[in-house]
């Protein structure tokens, strides 16, 4: 074989190198649309000869590359490369490349600019691609060139998916070249091997049609280690819109299996059929899925809310972190002469002193324990009378209860010392409770009773977490109607109409058009939401919190409100820093927080 460098111009002068480098700032092959059909995709098939060993920025002795599209050869780049080190004898025996052949060849830092320009806007193809790409990336890093991060297709990996053991005993390039009867046989020289790989690539592409692989993105994913179920069910991702919304995987009986949300439904659903998806429960879900339903939404907030509502309505079995409203619990103050704290699943219209909602009974009981540590609320479950007495329990003997059961305290004094601090803490200012718990933590820490101090710290965190959350919710759900807007990514405005903490309407105004007509149309067709009892009367706490997060972003603008949106000046929100310390720090960090 003649020296390829003889037919390819040597790398240009340094001035030309700088011009090429100026054009390498943009991403090259990574910009290739994954939806591009294979017949319209430009491929650069590359092969390297090296001195062996691991990629360290050098060691390349020859580069051969062929650019093809639609079966037509568009260009060839081939050159010997001076590695700057002696060639091992076994490499000379294998490739036929001698030290004398490489002495006049350019070093890799002079070859890289031409090669990077050659592969621009193309998909890089190689046999055992990690090896060749590893050497090229290392050379770019060593010599200060930016690797353009092209899309890469590995013909060896693709052959493992397309060809069976009955067809070929292995996936070596020589074996595949013989199987596909390539025009050029591999010879362990870069250009010959690259040309043989071109024919192998075309042979493999011809086999992909039977697997419903028609685009370059599909081919790259098909070459990866996807499961047979993913390969068999990947057609479920076809025809979905590239818009924000909710997607629903449904079983053969139309039962929802999994509900998700994305800013691009089509792209997100396709990801379930790639090698990156390795969750066992998702693999099980895909095996049962028969179709995917898309619900287009105006913007991300509407998609998130619809997802929550669908999960709550259908309880899909594969949504591991689903939050169901019926599992929420509340901590309320009972309505009796000597009230106590009770964990309940629902609030009644007459309940006026409560805290929540909590995601579990354990969380509610932890907060209740915090109040019991801070104020003398009774812990027994008896219904006490103003007239008759009952024997006191051990807590009264330990000084942990004022013994209202024996009438040692009047209902008025009990309300002042025990019940009123709970009402105040939940609605406005939890200062009394916070001070009491911090004082208890300080005493325990001073006595080196650190484990007990940690328990009280967790109770303080539970109290603050619940009060901060509820006061945030109440601030929004008390507003009859609120309209907000945020700039859309492609122009126009994302609009949301919120009524009593529930998303009642959503839309997007077109670019260049005043958003007011769109907002009025949303208002006219929005859901009617009536006021109700409690901090979340018309929606789940998660929905209202998603809305709050959207409204509190710096780029969101409040357009109209039926009443003011406010939080108590001395409310629980001012203890957020203390909450963060209680959740993440040690008890000694809280001893200086008392005010």
From TrEMBL:
The keyword RNA-binding does not apply. GO terms for molecular function: DNA binding; DNA-directed DNA polymerase activity; exonuclease activity. GO terms for biological process: DNA replication; nucleotide-excision repair. Residues 242-320 form the GIY-YIG domain. SMART domains: EXOIII (SM00479), GIYc (SM00465). It comes from the Bacteria. One of its GO terms (cellular component) is excinuclease repair complex. Keywords: Exonuclease, Hydrolase, Nuclease. Gene3D superfamilies: GIY-YIG endonuclease (3.40.1440.10), Ribonuclease H-like superfamily/Ribonuclease H (3.30.420.10). InterPro entries: DnaQ, GIY-YIG_endonuc, GIY-YIG_endonuc_sf, GIY-YIG_UvrC_Cho, Ribonucl_H, RNaseH-like_sf, RNaseH_sf, UvrABC_protein_C. It holds the Pfam family GIY-YIG. NCBIfam families: dnaq, PRK07883.1-2, PRK07883.1-3, PRK07883.1-5. This is DNA polymerase-3 subunit epsilon. It comes from Micromonospora inositola. The lineage of its organism: Bacteria, Bacillati, Actinomycetota, Actinomycetes, Micromonosporales.
């Amino acid at each position: 074989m003649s020296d390829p460098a003889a037919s390819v111009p040597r790398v240009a002068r340094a001035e030309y190198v700088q011009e090429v480098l100026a054009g390498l700032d943009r991403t090259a092959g990574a910009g290739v649309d994954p939806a591009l059909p294979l017949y319209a995709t430009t491929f650069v098939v590359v092969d390297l000869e090296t001195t062996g060993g691991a990629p360290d920025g050098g060691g390349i002795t020859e580069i051969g590359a062929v650019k093809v599209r639609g079966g037509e050869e568009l260009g060839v780049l081939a050159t010997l490369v001076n590695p700057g080190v002696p060639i091992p004898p076994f490499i000379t025996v294998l490739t036929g490349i001698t030290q004398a052949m490489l002495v006049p060849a350019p070093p890799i830092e002079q070859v890289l600019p031409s090669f990077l320009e050659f592969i621009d806007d193309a998909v890089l193809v190689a046999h055992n691609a990690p090896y060749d790409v590893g050497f090229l990336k290392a050379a770019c890093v060593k010599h200060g060139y930016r690797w353009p991060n092209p899309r890469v297709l590995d013909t060896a990996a693709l052959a493992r998916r397309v060809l069976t053991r009955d067809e070929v005993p292995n996936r070596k390039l020589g074996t595949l070249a013989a199987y596909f009867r390539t025009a050029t046989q591999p010879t362990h020289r870069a250009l010959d091997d690259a040309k043989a790989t071109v024919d192998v690539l075309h042979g493999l592409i011809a086999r992909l049609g039977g697997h419903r692989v028609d685009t370059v993105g599909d081919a790259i994913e098909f070459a990866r280690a996807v499961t047979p179920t993913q390969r068999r069910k990947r057609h479920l991702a076809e025809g979905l819109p590239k818009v924000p919304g909710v997607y629903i995987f449904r079983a053969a009986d139309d039962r929802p299996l999994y509900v998700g949300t994305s800013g691009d439904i089509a792209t997100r659903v396709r990801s379930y059929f790639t090698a990156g998806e390795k969750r066992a429960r998702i693999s099980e879900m895909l095996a049962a899925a028969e179709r995917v339903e898309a619900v287009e939404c105006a913007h991300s907030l509407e998609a998130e809310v619809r997802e929550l509502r669908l999960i709550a309505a259908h309880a899909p079995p594969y949504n591991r972190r689903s939050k169901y409203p019926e599992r929420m619990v509340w901590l309320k103050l009972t309505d009796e002469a000597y009230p106590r704290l009770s964990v309940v699943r629902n609030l009644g219209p007459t309940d006026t002193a409560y805290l929540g909602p909590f995601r579990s009974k354990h969380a509610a009981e932890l907060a209740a324990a915090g109040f019991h540590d801070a104020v003398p609320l009774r812990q027994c479950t008896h219904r006490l009378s103003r007239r008759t007495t009952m024997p006191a329990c051990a807590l009264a003997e330990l000084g942990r209860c004022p013994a209202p059961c024996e009438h040692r305290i009047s209902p008025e004094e009990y309300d002042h010392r025990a019940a009123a601090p709970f009402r105040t803490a939940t609605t406005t200012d939890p200062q009394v409770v916070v001070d009491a718990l911090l004082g208890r933590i300080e005493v325990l820490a001073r006595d080196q009773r650190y484990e007990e101090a940690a328990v009280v710290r967790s109770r303080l965190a539970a109290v603050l977490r619940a009060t901060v959350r509820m006061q945030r919710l109440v601030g929004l759900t008390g507003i009859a109607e609120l309209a907000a807007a945020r700039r859309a990514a492609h122009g126009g405005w994302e609009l949301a109409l919120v009524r009593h903490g529930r998303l009642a309407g959503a839309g997007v105004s077109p670019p260049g058009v005043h958003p007011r007509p769109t907002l009025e149309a949303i208002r006219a067709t929005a859901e009617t939401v009536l006021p109700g009892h409690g901090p979340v009367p018309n929606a789940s706490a998660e929905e209202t919190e998603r809305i709050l997060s959207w409204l509190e972003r710096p780029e969101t603008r409040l357009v109209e409100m039926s009443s003011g949106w406010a939080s108590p000046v001395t409310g629980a929100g001012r203890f957020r820093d203390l909450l963060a310390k209680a959740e993440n720090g040690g008890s000694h960090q809280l001893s200086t927080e008392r005010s």
